[in-house]
Amino acid sequence: MEQNPLQRPTPVIFEHSREGRRGTKIPKTDVPARPLDELLPKSALRKAQPALPEVPEHEVVRHFTAISLKNHHVDKAFYPLGSCTMKYNPKVNELTARLPGLGDLHPFQPTSGVQGAFRLMWELGEMLREIAGMDAITLQPAAGAQGEFVGALLIRAYHTAQGNPRKKIIIPDSAHGTNPATVVMAGYEAVMLESNAEGRMDPTALEAALDDEVAGVMLTNPNTLGKFESEIETIAGLVHEAGGLLYMDGANLNALMGITRPGDLGYDIVHINLHKTFSSPHGGGGPGAGPVAVKSHLAPYLPIPILQRDEVGGYSLDWERPDSIGKVHGFWGNFGVLVRAYTYIRMLGPDGVLDTARTALLNNAYMSARLEGTYQLPYGRGMHESVFSGAFLKEHGIRTLDVAKRLLDFGVHAPTVYFPLIVAEAIMAEPTETETVEELDRFCDAMLQIAVEAKNDPEFVKNAPYTTPVRRLDEARANRQPDVRYKGGHG
Ligand SMILES: *Cc1c(COP(=O)(O)O)cnc(C)c1O
What we know:
Elements: H1 36-39, H2 57-70, H3 92-97, H4 100-103, H5 115-132, E1 136-138, H6 144-162, E2 168-172, H7 178-185, E3 189-193, H8 203-209, E4 214-218, H9 232-241, E5 245-249, H10 262-265, E6 269-271, H11 274-277, E7 292-294, E8 306-309, E9 315-318, H12 335-371, E10 386-389, H13 400-407, E11 416-417, E12 426-429, H14 437-456, H15 458-462, H16 475-480
Parallel strand pairs: 2-3, 2-4, 4-5, 5-6
Antiparallel strand pairs: 1-7, 6-7, 8-9, 10-12, 11-12
Helix pairs in contact: 5-12, 6-7, 12-14
Pyridoxal-5'-phosphate binds near residues 220 and 249.
């Protein structure tokens, strides 16, 4: 086979470097030079010149473009990574986030000079509160996982004020791994509750698990199987009767927004993953935002400072909250992500928010209908995502991992695999609302073709992928000891 250009080794940028090459020529300064040690303390001066590549501008551009093509991203092709809501991120979000009046702000500017930014944060908070059906909100947390942690600290603060912080938080066995991690970090014991045959929380099982040491219940909705927790009102009643609080992991809000509201369903707390539902580029550890919205009985405990608006429309920060759990992020949160979410919601408007959720459900219904005759759906179709099982391929010696790897040859990112843990050989696909029917067909055709290949030529599938920059990696080692200087061959 002719070598795939993607598989050619890419030099690191330093290997492009030749002495004297420059991107830009800066005119000679007419300001008289002064020795550096007159301007800076000696301890701040470099001992040697910094090691910088000397490369003309176009080579820099080509270098990074070449690298970006080796990677997969949502601007390149479909990215059905279940639970992560990898929707297309409209470029207008980037435009507003870079407006000088927003992008060039300094967090130490006096509050009188950042009233516009505060107004944006205030209005975003109001829109999110409305979407969530809650009474108060903080925009500070930097991610969903940190939102969960804030939520668990709010639960602790609330119970402590009642005289007993309590000991346990109940989580279903379908939950995202961050849920039990959060609970333990907040000093609670995570109690796992088995889901019922429909993949939902069983109110009878919950009732049996509730006692006066249960501080709360964390329940994603729709849950990680994509199923709406249809007993949610009964569940909320039971939790509250036992004196506990009900927390919603809102990572799947893309399926619900505009249709129903966590607050109306009986939840006390919800976090919202702005980078998922409200579209900022995410993955790879980039910045996110996980605002936490609460009912009024939890408002006193929210992180400080609280943004407030006075009667004449000015904004200020309230630091005088004696019951607050404290500060959870530098300054006021990841502001750039807040600007993107604000832009996105304002662009959609209320009808657009509802349409977004409905289209996400429609796209998943279409994808699931096309695949379910071949791939099993142990818990049935989900709302915005479905969890298939690749267990039927075992008779050909093929695992879900092989399907995921082969999919890469079709130019799409693999779905989430082996999660949630309660589905054997799980394949969790989330199409999101932004994909066209043609794109969904392309994905489904690929999935169906792979099932045929698995039967007819399992060795071929087991050795996939063939067209990617690297093939099968030791994934743990690739993360811990990244080798950026790719040398070709089987990675
Ligand atoms: C993504 C996700 C989280 C964690 O959110 P981060 O923003 O990645 O920290 C928690 N729960 C569910 C269900 C998720 O999909």
